Amino acid sequence: MRKYNVAVVGATGAVGEEIFRIFEEIDFPYNKIVPMASERSAGSTIDFDGHALVIKELTETIFDEEEIEIALFSAGGSISAKYAPFAAKAGAVVIDNTSHFRMDADVPLVVPEVNPSEIHEWKTTGIIANPNCSTIQMVQVLKPLDEAFDLLRVDVSTYQATSGGGKEAMAELVTQMQDFFQFKLDESEHKAFPHQIALNVIPQIDVFTENGYTKEEMKMVNETIKILGKKVEVSATCVRVPTLRGHAEALTLTFDADVDAAEAREILAKAPNIIVVDNPALNEYPMPASCVDQNETFVGRIRNDLYRKNVLHLWVVADNLRVGAATNAVRIAQKWVEMQEK
Ligand code: A2P
Fold first, then answer.
1. What is the pLDDT of residues 59-79, one digit of tens each?
2. Which atom of ligand 1 lies at the shortest distance from residue 58's CA?
């Protein structure tokens, strides 16, 4: 099998670090992996598989210089906007974790368990977009249920961890908790979130749009339709909660057909990269604390609606840095490599 030169852009960030952990765990055909970040980090090293890799400064020419063939971007939307085209021009496939290119008609938006064949479209722009973290874990669950019962509508409320806002956002929660124990939470600063996040929940992620929904909520709406390739109705309420890792979602799904919770449980148990944890008698259900570092999406609390036979309720949890970002990006890279081999 051919081996590839890989770049990880945003190597020092919350998602970038996770990409390196995953490359340590799996057997990926790489020739070299080049960490890239800002000039602040350039020259310092990161530990990877027992070696110290030197971080390179992200520049317009670095992808040519390093002969990069696969570039995984997780350094923020404006960085992707500026540098992903240079990576693509250098001949690399860009797998972009930011929202910047997601809704471009020419850019495939891929969750490998749901729409892997879209990866074939990468050549048009050289870019494949990784969906929003909350969208990824949700569509993994929606796809097999849609195939079985014909999905019409999704009502979702999210409980999203601070790591979705990057390392500084996680640090803000930790600092505020420390301040709380020193009786000075009132004086604690907030920059990453619009309000204090410690001992609080914030029903706003990203900025509000004109229709009263936030950008995060509209990402879940638009991305779900693009990935499923189907005009389902989606209504989202996205909420930031004071956890570090793991996004949870309460889903209410309306189908064209009648749906049975036991049948849905069986279908989900067979679906790729989904683990059903649903044992109320033993108080067993998925939680953020038990999904950290896992590459699967966990589903529980699967139950019929009390009133309507075509409505199902369930609870979905996944590690947002892994399933919602790094794992999905690496799985896209693996599929892309498979396609090159054919
Ligand atoms: P750096 O550590 O050099 O600032 P997070 O999502 O956890 O906040 O991480 C953001 C990532 O994006 C970090 O790896 C950060 O690198 C990287 N980054 C931020 N600004 C730039 C930039 N101008 N050029 C390259 N990488 C950047």
1. 999 999 999 999 999 999 999
2. 25
